[in-house]
Amino acid sequence: MGAHERAVLIDLDGTLVDSAPDIVEAANRMLGALGAAPLPSKTISGFIGNGVPTLVRRVLAACSLAPAVDEERAQGLFHRHYEDTNGRFGNVFPGVVEGLDALRRAGYRLGCVTNKPEKATNFLLAISGLAPYLETVVAGDTIAYMKPYAEPLLHACREMGLDPALGVLVGDSAVDVAAALAAQMPVYIVRYGYPGPGGHAAVGMRGAVFIDSLAEMPALLSARAKLGAVSEVRYSSE
């Protein structure tokens, strides 16, 4: 199959955009509203990747506020503050724009699959200038499932009219690895993101190819396609 028939699905937080500063600020403002002391940036960054409900739950637990504080109230406070901090403190990671440009020139179709809520996702993609690169966006509340389930990746492929077998995922965490494996897609993990508990050495990262920049993807995918073509020729000749 040609490159124009393939999709590169890409995570948002920790992969395209260094949004941790935005999220940390919102989480600590939430804690301030609840009368608690702020948490270190590194602690909150380690909670990113599983969606807002899980993030808030982990933050409350880290401050010993659970179960005394109602989670729904805390989530409401987080969302309110995040509307103000989203896109204000973070930046697009180095190599992202170069990688997206190169992938698009090579004919790859691009989509974003994230656990961030849709409203916040669309705003961040717009303010960061990345929205025009993406043919489809599947956010944490677009469908009933989030990563690590396969459904968001499969939904993105359906939206693009592509066989999921022609897709790959680029992410930064074990959540991305699990989702890609569930969808039977190859998965590439950036080393600079928010890998979650255990870091990049975690058992949940097994099966991933690690990269330093999104700009590496065109060459890696080209090499993979050539290897696949050689394998098909060998198989058919046996």
From TrEMBL:
Signal peptide: none annotated. Pathway: Organic acid metabolism; glycolate biosynthesis; glycolate from 2-phosphoglycolate: step 1/1. Keywords: Carbohydrate metabolism, Hydrolase, Magnesium, Metal-binding. One of its GO terms (cellular component) is cytosol. It is an enzyme of class 3 (hydrolase). It comes from the Bacteria. The active site is at D11. Mg(2+) binds at D11, D13, D172. It catalyses: 2-phosphoglycolate + H2O = glycolate + phosphate. Pfam families: Hydrolase. Its EC number is 3.1.3.18. InterPro entries: HAD-like_hydrolase_sf (IPR050155), HAD-like_sf (IPR036412), HAD-SF_hydro_IA (IPR006439), HAD_sf (IPR023214), PGP-like_dom2 (IPR023198), PGPase_prok (IPR037512). SUPFAM superfamilies: HAD-like (SSF56784). GO terms for biological process: carbohydrate metabolic process; DNA repair; glycolate biosynthetic process. GO terms for molecular function: metal ion binding; phosphoglycolate phosphatase activity. Its cofactor is Mg(2+). HAMAP family: GPH_hydrolase_bact. PANTHER family: PHOSPHOGLYCOLATE PHOSPHATASE. Specifically catalyzes the dephosphorylation of 2-phosphoglycolate. Is involved in the dissimilation of the intracellular 2-phosphoglycolate formed during the DNA repair of 3'-phosphoglycolate ends, a major class of DNA lesions induced by oxidative stress. Belongs to the HAD-like hydrolase superfamily. CbbY/CbbZ/Gph/YieH family. This is Phosphoglycolate phosphatase.
